[in-house]
Each structure stands twice: as C-alpha cells, then as structure tokens.
Design a protein that fits this description.
about 260 residues; mainly alpha; 13 helices; about 65% helix; Homeodomain-like_sf; HTH_TetR; DNA binding; transcription; TetR family transcriptional regulator
Amino acid sequence: MAYGGRMPRDTLTREQIVKAAIDLLDDEGLEGLNMRALGKRLGSAATAVYWHVGSKDNLITLAGDEVWHQIALPDLATMDWRTAATQMATDLHAMLTRHSWLVQAFGSYMIFGPGKARHDDHGYAVYEAAGFTGAQADQAAATVFTFVLGNALVPAAAASFTKKLGRDGGNAEALMHESMAKAHEIAAQFPRLRARLDTAATDYAATPDNTFQFGLQAILDGLEAQLGAHSTPSDLASPSAAGGDASAEHARIGDV
C-alpha cells in the first residue's frame, strides 16, 4: 500500500508520468517543470518519478516526442498532396500552439522518438507523392516545417513570458500590459509601425487574420511551381503526368 498517502513507484508507469508531465508543462511552461511538482500531481515521491524516467531532461524529451502523436496522418490514397500537406502543417501549428513549451525545448533538447519519426516519415511520403524525390523531398518538408515553427515562435514566447510573470508572484496581466505599453511607445517612433498601432490589432506583434494560411499556401504554390518548372512537354503528355504510374513520375522529377 502507499506510504503516507503516496503512490509507490511500482504502481506508476512511464506513460502516466509522461502524461502528467505534459499537463504540467502546458500549465507552467518549461521552466515550471520539476520532479517535486510532478510527484505532487501524481501523488508520488519525486524519487519514484526519477526511478521511471531517469532525469528531468529525459522526461522533457519523452513528453516532447509524445505530443507528436496528436498530429493526424492524412490518407494519401484518398487526397491530393497539397491537401495532405496543408492538413499536416495546420495540425502541427495547432499542436505547437497547444504545447508552446515544445517550441522552447527545440533550442535545448534533442526531441526525437517514435512520435516525431512517425510524423516525419509521413511528411516525406506527402512530398514524394507530389513528385519530389531524394533530397528535394527533404528540402520541401524542411521548408514547410521551418515556416510552421517560425509562426509558432511569437505565441510561444508570449505564453512563456506570461507564465514567468505569474511564477514571479506579480500581477501577470498588469505586468504584461506594462510591457506592451513600452513596446507601443518604441513602435510609435517608426512611421509604418505607428500606422499599424492604430488598426484593430491591439497587440504590437499581432498579424492579420489568416496570415498563417496565406503563408502556407504561398509556400505550397512555390513548391508546386518547382515541380512544374522541371516538366517538359513530353513529360506532360506521359501517363504519369495524367495521374499514371507514380514511380515513373518520381523518376521524372529525380533531377529537380
């Protein structure tokens, strides 16, 4: 039985610990994760948590990999590559927004495991289905990923800053308002920034609605143009150009 109301280590599982860690990271951010707080959530001693996951760093990499399972893998047999690429990129953006601490973790931890591998493997399949092969498929996937990650940076920084203000014991809302007022004061010294302060977007770092969707489609347009630019008249007349043998299409694009 549990000692002093705590759960003995043999009743904990790694899966329970990782799930609780994700919840704690969502609530408190990367800096707010510690084994004592996690043990309290689990009703267990911090030493029991260490016994299952080894270290805080290892726990962060486990949690960071687990959330990649939240991204759906579109069926390439039933949809075109652009729809699949859009769905995966949109799901990735939503996941990074829900778990903003993961954006921070990329800078300090090697996040790779079955969850991310599952996502990456299917991502390559999407761009291979488009007609990219070899290094070009990798470049296409990396281009979209870095765009999505870049769009997640600002909200992740804002979430981290807000959580930090709360942990420091001050009035997070008031301190955030003070910080934004300073940003507005600086921005007002520059004509184009000043003009944007007078729009409906009240946050200095805010962007117009649908900016993410606009940028993603622009990138996919560019990737599609890369494929089209390397098509020859004979290619366009071939069975593969009409939706025939996928392997022939891949071979045609091999020298993009």
